[in-house]
Amino acid sequence: MFDELQGLIPEPHPVTFRPRLSMTADILAARRCMRQYGYFRHERFVPSRTTQIYFGTIVHQVLDMAHRFYEETNQMPGDHEIEEFFNEVHDALVARGIRPRSRASQDNALEVIRRFNQLEGPNLYPLVIDTECHLETNRDDYILEGVVDVLRHDEEGNVEIWDYKGMRRPPDGNPILNDYIWQMRVYAELYCQKTGAYPTRAVLYFVNELLEDEHFQQGQRPPQALYVIEFQPEIVQAALAEFDGTAHTIIDRLQTREWPEPEQPPPQETCDACDLRWNCMVAQHHYNYHIPHNILNIDQEE
Amino acid sequence: MNDWNIVDFVTQQLGVELTEEQIAIINHSEGPARVLAGPGSGKTLMITLFVLRLLYRDGVAPEAIFVTTFTRKAALNLEERILQYAQHLRAWAEDNGIELPDPDITRIHLGTLHELANDILLRYRYGPYRNRLLMDEYQQALFLYAQHPYVQSFIINNNQEIREFWEHLANAPWCGPVDTRWQKVRKLMVLLNRMVEDHVNIEAMQEAGFPWYRLARAYEHYVEQLNNYHRCDFAHLQRFFLEFLNTPQGEEFRQSLQWVLVDEYQDTNRIQERIYMKLVEGKRPANLVVVGDDDQAIYRFRGGTVECIIRFPSSCQHYLNQEATTYYLVHNFRSHEEIVDFINKFINSFGVAHLPGARAEKPEIVAASGINQNYPAVVRIIGETVPETAERVARFIHYLVHNNIIHDYNQCCFLFYSTRENRYNAGPYVQALNQLGIPCYNPRGRTFLEQEEVVIFLGALLSLLDPYLDNCPPPYQQMVNGWMQYFNENCNNTPLANFVHDQRALIEETEVGHIANILEVVYMLLALSPLSDFQNDPVRRQRLGQLTALLEAFLTTPTNGGQQLARIPIENGQIAQQWLNKFYYMFIGYIKNGISDAEDENVIAPLGMVPIMTIHQAKGLEFPVVIVDSIRYNAQPDVIHHLEQELAQFYDDPVPDFEQLDPEQKVLMDGVRLFYVAYSRAQYLLVVVGSQNQLCNGNVAKGGNPKFLLNHTIEV
After folding, report:
1. ipTM of the prediction
2. Cross-chain Cβ contact B517/A48 below 8 Å
3. Is B378 helix (H, G, I), strand (E, B) or coil?
4. Domains of chain A as residue ranges with CATH
5. Average pLDDT value for chain B
6. Nearest CA to CA, how far is A216 from chain B (Å)?
7. Chain B touched by A138 (CB under 8 Å)
8. Distance between CA atoms of A107 and A102, rounded to whole angstroms?
9. Considering the entire predicted model, what is its pTM?
10. CATH number of the domain at B337-446+600-715, please?
């Protein structure tokens, strides 16, 4: 009956398409810990604590509003405006279930932003070209996306990338710091592809260094707050190649759906905040003996 | 600009001969256009080539092109196609000494409308949308349950008008029961979403008297609460976007666009129609190209309004004051010519398909795949009973593979109206396949709550929180008891059970205290065997992941008392009753009624397995062999069809609707379209299956007259 159908149907061929990978949510997260990344980005797990994202989110959003305020009014936002922006964002985050770890953490966030605004605002805001600037590029088998916090001119009119980090500055050689440096190099490349030229430099701004009183009270920026990265094309290319490696690992993992524990344990803060720590072999020295755990005692907020 | 033609590139580099109709579309130079594209007519290719023409020949900036697709996956596919063809185009241009611009394709606005709206509102930092939580269907339901006054019994009891509103609805023949709070929530959700998607004039509704002004009030309450709690649902996201387009910033965005392309326009809704029109309104020419097929509109239940594509020319006339060109893609490059003939005859066999307003006027589709070998391409397997049919179908699949007609089981796709593995749907077929050792891929074949890992997880959680079911409301007792029993019988002495036991003892020793964050405890449960072992299986792991997401959504639902649900109070050695009540009524109450079986975009057909999917999931896909069950499907009017008719009086819609079908006719036509989509997925072989009995009962799949199926298929 089906003789003529024999040999007609070709072999099946898999359909593939290149994924879009975000610099922070995919590449950096996967480099930190592939297991954590896979579970929370691709397997629908939702983290139990949102306190980690509170600080970074509120700092970025309020600073973005401060930039916009200057752009629209040509005036420096004062403490009063900063507090207003802060409360607006805070209320919205809390209404969405994103809370600060503690009252102190909330106060710190406000203080950091206030200090940043006072110390950096007058010089920085007038030189800003764009904030929350989206950059993306087509790598052969994936599309890389990133968001640059601030594009600004320097005093000579050259372009700089600024990226705010809601933390203290990690010591030199720390893998997290290294990844941030590589991140800036890749942003430089994305920027170059968009405009045809590299930015002069990138600046990582570790905003929590502003909590240190000594310099701030003398109206000085704490020297630890800034980390400046210059660009050399070879190093930028090396950074891209390294990130390509991570991207390819992710693309493979998306097929196999296996999310192994990392060979090197991530920094302790990462594991401390990770819901998968209870049976994680890499982090086991820290956590596994907590099981059985007294669930009544788990209270980070007090 | 170079003088070259995209058609030459396609012929010379890709070796594809385009039809005249395709060439006309690719060369459409300006103004609104509608492409009515039949199944398998290569519309993705057309959109791809059209975009390439804009970018490389016309020099349009990628940021000036706005392309929407129906799903995220379709967007990724389209982007991939554009990137690949651009590579070919550049190679061809180099060979021919043609200079091309170098646009960055990733900067095209390409995605689903929801996705693009969200992106653009965030990028422009549109004030009213700032910092809102975009709720999915589940979060929206919980939010309404917890917040909306219309569903709270003490308010209903004390407010005569709200009571009468529900009584009125309950008496409407189309409404279905609205007795319990969840039934009210679900009904209200349909109404509110539909009001937004249909772009209903709320003021007109206010003035329309009972019961309409009550519904308008319900809507206002809801909007107020969305604002108070910084939330947004998917329907309102579109509304925000439309409002944004009317602001100066929105104007700036509109001006940055030169071309708007819309795929799957048949499943668009009224507010989306407004958005697309607004994007190009006032421009001369208004470059809006919509592509779709009214015969493949199957999303009315999710707000799709097939009428938008049918009346596109009059909408263009009204909003844009411009004539729309209509193009037809009638050549089918997918299917055997007998299959094409069958689907043409199928749709025409229904009287309703010939009524004015039922379909857009267009020529019949024409077979052009070159597949015309002499074998029966449309066959039926009709057994005495369902199990007998299933057995014959399984043997047939076995035959196909063992005679090398197909190379892999995944080339043979099973389509059902519902893929549930019960005796009415996929159950007997899965069983018959298993008996012959044929593996099948049906990740959603069982209800979520029947999955072992889900039962054990819930059993463990309940054993911790309320082991004696002291506080379990009667309607849930049997179900919850079943979970706990399964957990107790199957997990005895496991690390999970021991942990639960120890922790429960701690709770019972505590006079006053609390569990700080129950979700954190959930992750401890997941770290223990057997729950940890389940995570080696990707499918089970995802279900456990989904459970954490469901729980988190429940725990972050704003409550009237303002307490955080994640923090559980303990009183006298017990979880506080008030908390347990919320847990049972909100969380368990929701999941009891079924985790939405919405189409999963990532449904795949792994090698070595027969894929089993719903007709909705198969939208846009094709398979060498397609087996369609559900001939028992009986089109029945439901809420949506009646609601559309009722709400029509409030449409804030200046474009006169053409003559519309009445609800019974609409529902039948929707069913016809559904099976039109199912049947047109097949490339080489279409198999219609069912039992004698089902054949007698169904009113759609078997065609518009009693003998249709028997006359147009061959028994195997």
Report:
1. 0.90
2. yes
3. strand
4. 20-255 (3.90.320)
5. 92
6. 31
7. yes
8. 9
9. 0.93
10. 3.40.50.300
